[in-house]
Amino acid sequence: MAEEETAAMAPGKAPKKLIENGIRNDGRKPEDLRNLKITVGVLKKAAGSALIEWGKNRIMAGVYGPREVFPKHNMNPNKAIINCRYAMVPFSSLEEHGRFGPNRRAIEIGKVGKHVFENAILTEQFPKTMIDINIDVLQSDGGTRVAGIVAAALALVDAGIPMRDIPCGVSVGKVDGTLVADLDKTEDNLGQSDMPVIFSPRTWDILLLQMDGMLTKKEVMDGIDLARIATQRVHEMQVAALEAKYGAAAAGDDDSQDESAA
Amino acid sequence: MEKQLILPGALAATTPRRMDGCYVDDGKTFVSVVSLKAGDKIIPLKGHYVPRIGDYIIGIISEERFSGYEVDINAPFPSTISARDIRETFQVGDVVSAKVRMVDEVHTAQLVEPRKLFAGRLIEIESVKVPRVIGRNGSMLALIKEYTGSDVFVGKNGRIYVKNGDIALSVMALLKISSEAHTSGLTDRIKELLEVESKKSPQNHVAPRPAVQERPPAGMY
Amino acid sequence: MITNEVKEAFVLDLMKKNTRVDSRGMLDYRQISVQKEVYENCEGSAMAQIGDTKVIAGLKLDVATPFGDRPTQGVIMFNAEFSPVAHPDFTAGPPDERSIELARVVDRGIRSAECIDLDKLYMEEGKVLGVFIDLFIIDHNGNLTDAAYLASMAALRTAKMPKYEDGKLIREERTAPLPVARDVVSCTFEKVGDKILLDAREEEEVSSSGRVTLATCGDDLLCASQKSGRAGFSRAEFESMIDTALAKRKELLKYI
What we know:
The structure holds three protein chains of three kinds. Chain B has four helices and 14 strands. By secondary structure, chain B is α+β, with helices and mostly antiparallel strands. In chain B, a hairpin with a 5-residue loop joins strand 10 and strand 11. Chain C has one domain (about 5-255): Ribosomal Protein S5, domain 2. Helix content of chain C is about 25%, strand content about 35%. Chain C is built from five helices and twelve strands. In chain C, a hairpin with a 2-residue loop joins strand 9 and strand 10. Chains in contact: A-B, A-C. Chains A and B meet through strand 5 and helix 4 of A and helix 1 of B.
C-alpha cells in the first residue's frame, strides 16, 4: 500500500525501470527480503516491546495489559478487548513533515491490525480486561503495516500474553510486471500493485490481506504463495529475536520448587 | 534434563492436555507463552497471575466497601474480602497476606484469612518466577533466611514481603533470582552474593538493577 | 431491541441447517436496485439499495489545487458518514474506524482501477478538478461495502462536468460527462460459523467472525481486497471467493 495518501494517486506510471534483467533497483532478486533485524524487550516500562529494523523502516511496538478497561463501557464480559494503535511520527517519511497521531490511513491499519491480534491472542482467558498494542513508525520505507504487525506480535509474546501463534507476514506486489516480495518505498509508490499479507504460521491461515492496483486471479494466488515463502523467512527472524532474549533460560539447571510442593 | 525453548504456537502434546501456558486446538495441545520444554513438562517463562483456590497471595487493599474490601492482587482481575469473614478493619493501602477461597468464572477471587503485614518491605516479581525463589524443597528461601535473618513471605502472585534481619540484602538476593531465573548455577551465585554482601554493613549493599519495577511499601504512596 | 448474542445464536443455528435468515443461497444477493441522479444540485448522485440497506453517494466537483508530486492530475476523495438514523449503534461525532475503513476500501478499488482519467481533470497551471464522493449511509441492514461501490460507480457514471471559466465552475451549465474508463464492483463475504456467505444481512454480520471484500474491474482483474475481522481464511477459501467475485461481476454491472 502506498505510504502516503498523495502518492497513491495513480499507480502504474513508473517513470524508470524498477527491475532490469531480473534484478531490482537495490540489487535484490524478486523473492529476496531486505535486511531485517528484530530486537525484543527494548523498552523498560512497557510489559512487552520490540524494535524492528527492516530496510530503512524503524518501527517500535509496545504492549500494555491485560488491564482494567477504559472507557468502561467498552468492556466485554467474556474476553479481553484489543486496542491497536498504529501511527507514524511526523518526521518518519522522506517527504513532507507529518503530524503526530493516527490519520485516516493509520486508523484503518490499526483496525485491521487489531483483527489480526484478536485472532492470535487467547482473549477469552482475560475477561473484562483490555490489551493495548502500540505501533509507532519512526522511519518509513514501505511495508510499514506488516513490519509493525511482525514487531507487535513479538511485543505481545514478550509481555507474556497467551497467544495461539505468532502472526507474521510480508508485503508482495507487482513491479514492472513481475511479482516481488517485500516492496520498498519506491517500488510501493511506483509499482503496479501492492498486497500486504499476514499469516498465522501454525495453520497458514490468512489473517490480513489487502490489495491495491490491478491483478488477475492468477497473480493474486501466486502472490499469496510468494508471500508464504517469504513469510517463512521473516518468521525465522522472529524466532531468532525471541531466542536472543529468552534462549539463555534453556541452558539453565532446574532447581526450582517441585510441582507437588507448590 | 535437556531443556528446549519453545514459542507460542509450538506443539506441546499430540493429545489434549490441561497445562499452564498451553491451549488445546483440534485435539492437540499447543504452547501459548514463551516456555521451556523438558521432556513432557512445560515450564512457562512468562505469564500473568491467575488466582487459584488455595493460593496464598499478598494483596494491597485498594477500596473499602460496605460489603468488605477490594484487593489488588497483581492480577488483571479484581478480588475481594467479604466483611462477613473478618473482624478486623483495614485501610486502603494496607498490605495483607490472604488465601484464595473461591474464584468465579471471570477469575474474580474471594480472599479469606487476611493478615496485615507491616514494618517490612514489599517487592514484586513475575509470578512464574515464584517457584525459583522458593527453590527445590524451599532450599533457596532457606538460604536467604540463613544469611540475612529475615522473614520472607512469598505470595503465589509474585509479591514478596520481607521483614526483620538484613532486609536490603534479602531484597537484593530476591531480585537477582528474579532477573537471572532459569540460568545455570543460580544457587551458587546467590550463595556467593549472600556470602560477600553479608560481611558488609547494610548501607553498602550495591543493589542490582531490578527486573521488575519495585513498588514502595504500603503507606508510602 | 434484540441483542447481538441472541441474533448470533439464531444465525449460527440456521447455518448448521445450511440455510439463511431469508432462505437465500449462501452466494446469492438480496434484491438490488440503484436509483441514479436522485439529487439535482450535486454533479452526480445515486442511491443503491441491497435488500433493506440504503446507501447514497453524492458526487461534487470543485476546483482544487493538485498535489505537488502530480501537478497535472485531478484529485479524488472519498468520505463516508454513518448517519445516526441508519442504525442504533451509530452515533453522531467524528468518523469512527468503520466509516474510515469503508471510505478507504471504496477509494482503493476505484483508484486502483484508474476509473477516472485524472489527466483529463487538469484545467490550468495550479488548477485541477477535484472529485469528492461522499457516501451517506441511511439504513444499515448489512453489506454496506457492496452498496457503497454500486452507489459510487452509478454516481460517477451519471456525473456531468460543469463549464470551467476563469478559474471558476459555472455549475448551471453542465456539459460533458465525467470521463470514466471502467466499472468497479465489489463482493463482500462473511465467515459465519464454518461457512462463507455473500451479501450478509445485519444479523449475519454480527454473527460473522471475518470479512473479505474483493473488488473487480474486469473479467479476470481484481483491483482491491480487504480482509477484516478476527477469523483466518485459508488459501483455498480465498481462491473460491475470487472465483465468486469474478462470476458475480456481470450480475452487478447491470445496476450501474
